[in-house]
Design brief:
The structure is a single chain. By secondary structure, this protein is α/β, with parallel strands linked by helices. It is 27% helix and 16% strand. The protein has eight helices and eleven strands. It has helices spanning 123-135, 156-173, 188-201, 222-229, 260-272, 298-310, 334-339, 343-353; strands at residues 69-75, 95-103, 110-111, 139-146, 177-182, 206-209, 236-240, 247-248, 254-255, 280-285, 328-332. Helix 2 (156-173) runs parallel beside helix 3 (188-201), helix 3 (188-201) runs parallel beside helix 4 and helix 6 (298-310) packs parallel to helix 8 (343-353). The radius of gyration is 19 Å and the shape is globular.
Length: 356
């Protein structure tokens, strides 16, 4: 996501021919039509760390992420959207991704600093808001990267530095987990190592990703390989369906952004390419000004959710099956949503929470 127009600088060209027309051919046989999702879902499951985390910080109480969840990015900066404190974020958001942790001078390591523009008097006030959201059953996670992010994890040393710094920030602030929003390249081998180290230290961590559309066109892409590499504990991939241009759908056809077909046909690549439905979410701008392109009305997002979970509301693209366990949707950002009158939280949030 970008700080001016939040989102990736994704390819504008159609990414044709990357995925075969039959995406299921390279994986195990598909489940029966409308097969129910398993009772357990990836991600944190009401697991608790010891009362005192490393460094003496009190570990957060972690509630299970809902079966169908709404994710929103909270801006730790002022770019013209509504300036919020965490306590102001709409209650519809189940996962709040604090944006962003940024690179340090040490390879792979990240740090987080509150922007004075947000209005917190102290870090303790911010931590108190995190705890209040957690007490309300929400997960507050730290997003790494963004459009300006220059975090590079490309070897064992940088992977170790990444994991150590993320774990320290989780313990210091009480974050429930981490979100990967690296838009300038990603090495699957070492990012998987780093995230497994985070998971080892925090078994209840919420782990999400926000790849660009071009990053999820094939299971051979580094972002997709990373998601599959941590499939046993990953919570959700909320791909950015904006600032993209046209892309290939799972049927081999090219679809233009800004339509229900774009949302459903690209989600299908992930759903048929190895991810569990509970690990797939639809990421969109919360307001027209939140992205350079790709904004869709809440009704379009809801139609895509219905198409994927119920088989209704589809456009010309019809998924090969339904995925009632689909995790939900994501908004960039809670601040832009507030600036737009809370449309996304009110309409898409209610729809997500009413999915089968």
């Amino acid at each position: 996501m970008r700080r001016l127009f939040a989102g990736p600088a994704a390819a504008v060209l159609a990414w044709a021919g990357v995925l075969a027309a039959d995406p299921a051919a390279a994986q195990t046989p598909p489940a029966p039509q409308s097969a129910p999702a398993p009772p357990s879902v990836p991600g944190p499951q009401s697991v608790h760390r010891p009362a005192n985390a490393p460094g003496g910080a009190t570990a957060p109480t972690t509630a299970a992420v809902p079966r169908h969840a709404l994710t929103g990015y909270w801006q730790n900066f002022d770019n013209g959207a509504t300036v919020q404190k965490l306590k102001d974020v709409d209650d519809a958001y189940d996962i709040i991704a604090v944006s962003f942790a940024e690179a340090t001078g040490q390879p792979g390591a990240v740090t987080f600093r509150l922007d004075p523009a947000v209005g917190y008097g102290s870090a303790d006030d911010f931590k108190a808001d995190i705890k209040a959201k957690q007490a309300a059953g929400k997960s507050v996670i730290l997003s790494v990267g963004g459009e300006r992010g220059a975090v590079s994890v490309t070897d064992d040393t940088s992977a170790g530095n990444f994991a150590t710094s993320v774990n320290q920030l989780m313990d210091e602030y009480g974050f429930n987990g981490v979100d990967i929003d690296l838009e300038n390249g990603l090495n699957a081998t070492y990012m998987v190592k780093a995230l497994k180290a985070v998971h080892t230290a925090h078994p209840d961590a919420v782990v999400t990703m926000a790849p660009q559309t071009v990053d999820m066109q094939s299971p051979q892409n580094e972002y997709f390989k990373t998601a599959l590499g941590i499939k046993d504990f990953m919570t959700a991939v909320n791909m950015q369906y904006y600032n993209s241009g046209s892309m290939n759908g799972c049927d081999g056809k090219v679809y233009a952004q800004g339509s229900v077909d774009f949302l459903t046909s690209l989600a299908c690549i992930q759903l048929e390419g190895g991810l569990d439905p509970s690990q797939v979410g639809i990421g969109v701008p919360a307001a027209p000004r939140a992205a350079g392109s790709g904004y869709v009305a809440p009704s379009v997002v809801n139609a895509a959710l219905d198409c994927l979970t119920r088989g209704s509301g589809c456009g010309s693209f019809k998924p090969p099956r339904t995925y009632p366990g689909l995790r939900g949707a994501m908004a960039w950002s809670t601040n832009w949503d507030a600036a737009n009158g809370g449309e996304f939280a009110g309409q898409v949030g209610a729809h997500v929470h009413g999915l089968p």
